[in-house]
Amino acid sequence: MSMESVTGVLVVLVICQVLLCLYAQPHSLMFNRDLGGGVMRVNGGQTITFQCEAAGRPVPTIQWLHDGRRITQEASHSYLDDAAFFERKPHDQNVDALQLGNTAGRLRIFCVTHAHAGHYACVAQTPTERIVSTAILEVALLANIYMWEMQRLEYEGLDVQLFCRASGFPLPRMTWYDRNNDVITDTHDQYKVLKNGDLIIKNISWAKHVGLYRCAALNVFGKDATEGILVSGKTLKYDSWLEYVINGRDLHLATLTTGYNPLKRCSHLSAIAPRRLKIHQKL
Prior knowledge:
The chain has 283 residues and is mostly beta strands.
């Protein structure tokens, strides 16, 4: 064997020994891809994805936390799965397995809501090390009125609470408009806007309060609005607000049901009684 061949073999052996010594030592756990530590702002209803990658020896596992609590992405998986390894050792017991590798983890959230907002963490760990990468999720939700009072019938002299409930993030600011389309403020003794968005009208009367009221919800991402009708009278019937018109009979309104000019609001009845429609208001 020539000297060049011997030298080449020695070089290969030295390289192999160096690599084996290198792989035999535990490798520091590190992120190849982390969450960046920043803030992610998304609109409600979207699908978002967090992903991180970690390398180490032994091969790390990855789990996810939301506000410090572990997220289980599959109910059938157990926490014990993270520590369970079923690899066989080499036949030569003097040689340890390399167990050097990269692990990727992904957290996908479908149709995000405000409940998903908060601090997220990607946790990579081995039996000896643990590293964490974090991010903050902010979910922007448009102002949305989800319950309101379309019609309200009540006796004069009583107090009335008109519903208007809204959701959104940030929490929407609620504004009410009276029958004259003026903004209702707490400076009016007859009105009070509650924290939940409802409107209290005190000591209602036909002359002052009957009409159309509007409620609006506003945040930085959008606005939603709706309207409702307040009807009052000295004597009211609960069975029916409108009497059906047939065969030439007159139409009797026990109360004003909309706050607008009744002739304009009842124009859709013209197909039923085009020539004999009469309006009667009973106070």
